[in-house]
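fwd from M.: "can u put these together and see what the complex looks like"

so here's what she sent:
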Amino acid sequence: MRSNWNDAPGGFHPASAPDYLPREQLRAVQLQRLQATVKRAYEGQKLFRQRMDERKLTPAHVKRLEDVAQLPFMVKTDLRDTYPFGLFASPMEEVVRLHASSGTTGKPIVVAYTAADVEVWKEVMIRAFAACGVSRADVIQNAYGYGLFTGGLGAHYGAEALGATVIPISGGNTERQLMVMADFGVTVICSTPSYFLHLLERAKEAKLDFGRLRVGIFGAEPWSDAMRLRIQQESGIRAHDIYGLSEIIGPGVGSECHRQDGLHLFEDHFLPEIVDPQTGQVLPDGTEGELVLTTLSKQAMPMIRYRTRDVTSLNPEPCACGRTIRRIRRISRRSDDMFIIRGVNVFPSQVETALLQVEGTLPHYQIVLTREKGLDNMEVQVEVTPEIFSDKVRALEALHARLEDALEQVLGIRVMATLVEPRSLARSEGKAKRVIDNRKM
Amino acid sequence: MRLHQLSLFLENRPGQLRAPCQVLAQAGVDILTTSLADTAQFGILRLVVRDWQKAKAALEAAGMVVNVTEVVPVEVEDRPGGLLAALSAIDQAGLGIEYMYAFAAGTKAGKAAVVLRFQDVGKAEKALLEAGIRVLAEEELLGRM
């Protein structure tokens, strides 16, 4: 039986109830969960305990919600330094799932889930889908990559728990995506926005339309309102932004509602703060800064004050959809030099690792990002140095192949390497501009 | 008896060949012969010049990466089958040629010259000499041209 409990605008689902809690009640839930999480991290994470001890803090110091500001930050390199399992606060017998994503060097970062964590993940994904007006009546084509990346399985479990029909098609194979979309009566697609633009281009070339498709849930990379406008105009669907990161849970940390005016953070599970990226000082609501998140219910890997490096602001104004949970403005940029390509996080330092591996010394290089037919391309331009230059074509071609292989190994995606003439890349005063982003968001 | 060849890296786009030639012209260095190897992505310009040290210094001062390789200039008969004799000797010795290009003219009438690149230059010279093929000296070539 297909009920229409969430046909109402705003997508109400029983799991969405916490979205509408009165603020005071929400804050009470947050405080209680924060105290439990800090205690859990203090007892289970050596690194966190050490940092608390250095500051002469104990979990008992968290008396009010605002006290979170006294706690030490966690950063991405902490996950790398404790690789693979150093931040787990649950014994492995209780861990039911591991995911991994790219870190700042060759090693990935590993995240863990207990059965209860997976339940929370499902719940927030149901709430995200519901907020975008997706219901159990929908047929969802999940084009996020399945595997170690949290996008595929995160959206999958949530969509199934919602009761919708899920097509676990994963990423890639554009022709098959378009065929499935038309033949299976797909109404909702989950993908990166750039991949959807690519589907759009290919559909146009093949003179196909999107059939019953009505909603797109797009995440895993930053995109803009201009891109949304283009997607909506050219495809006739509603394009929604969803936010998440593996370190916190994966997709489902926040999502737009049908108003498409900022992303609601599921605050009963993830406590947000905005801080000055330089000083780490907490900034008031409405001010732009770096988003810092504290998990409030994670068991296997609690994260206290995780620096997301995503720049946004918190909007405390009540939303017209009726949700009381706060919204963040769409993420437009990062406070570090990380960028996202085809849903994969890339740091220039990873590129340097690969170049060093091949050449022994670090040549002058530049990363150029472009978007062609909706698909993101990354090119690494490497200046030829006397050490690597050869008069033999074969030797240079082998070097070129080694560069591309090393980059693929470190980044996890295939990117293009180009050998360029010495001194042909721009030098700037001080910090070199390593990334040229020519993508039109 | 070896020839110093200069190699330059060029990006494969219009106008790239001009810059090194301009540098050599300004430095007053004479180009004796040249060959260009190209792929879809890049090219390698190989040059034999009258004063390789001066040329190298000028090119490097202009920011170019210059690779110096020893290559073998071989005299061949300027008649059908002339090159074949040299190649046969190389085959017999079991040597592989990395690449090859020609001089416009040899050191004397009736002779032509080719430049050969080997992995092992010494071995190649020995094999050629044993087969009675004349390997030219750098001075000889420069003097003639």
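replying to her w this: The domain at 341-437 of chain A is CATH 3.30.300.30 (GMP Synthetase; Chain A, domain 3).
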